[in-house]
Amino acid sequence: MMKCLWIFLPALLLVSGLATVLADESTPEHVCETKNGTSCEDCLRNVSCLWCIKTKLCVTYPVQTILPPHSLCPLDDARWGLCWSKKYTFTD
Predict the structure, then answer these.
(1) In whole angstroms, what is the distance from residue 8 CA to residue 57 CA?
(2) Quick check: 67 and 47 in contact, CB under 8 A?
(3) CA 40, CA 82: separation in Å to the nearest integer?
(4) What residues pair up with 51 in beta bridges, in sequence order?
(5) Spatial contact of 51 and 58, defined as CB atoms under 8 Å apart
(6) Which residues on adjacent β-strands are paired with residue 57?
(7) S-S: 52 plus which of 21, 26, 69, 73, CB 3.0-4.6 Å?
(8) What are the two backbone dihedrals, phi and then psi, of residue 87, each rounded to the nearest 5 degrees?
């Protein structure tokens, strides 16, 4: 009985581990991109997303860089966290 348990338990753990990995792979990697063409508010409901005003694209924030590269979206048009941007102007 004990020998059967020593064979069955590792096999059960292996199968459950594989099921978990396969389930994770079936989830979409680019959730942000499904919000393309919607609105900044819809895009930024997910904290890992970046909205580009000019192109109306919602993309996954490139975490490997501190700021999004210009090729992805010009910095003046990029929004993450909040949709609005306060522009400061100085007058004489």
Answers:
(1) 50
(2) no
(3) 8
(4) 58, 79
(5) yes
(6) 52
(7) 73
(8) -95, 130
Amino acid identity of residue 58, one-letter, is C
In the chain, DSSP finds a helix count (H) and a strand count (E) of 2, 3
Q: Which residue has the tokens 């792979």?
A: 25
Taking the model in full, what pTM does it have? Answer: 0.61
**Residue located via tokens 């991109």:** 33
Q: Kindly give the confidence (pLDDT) of every residue in the chain, 92 residues in length, as a single tens digit, with 9 standing for 90 and above.
A: 555 545 655 554 444 443 443 343 434 567 999 999 999 999 999 999 999 999 999 999 999 999 999 999 999 999 999 998 665 555 55
Cβ distance 37 to 56 under 8 Å? yes
With contact defined as beta carbons under 8 Å apart, do 56 and 50 qualify? no
- How is residue 33 annotated by DSSP? G
Q: Is there a contact between 91 and 65 (Cβ–Cβ < 8 Å)?
A: no
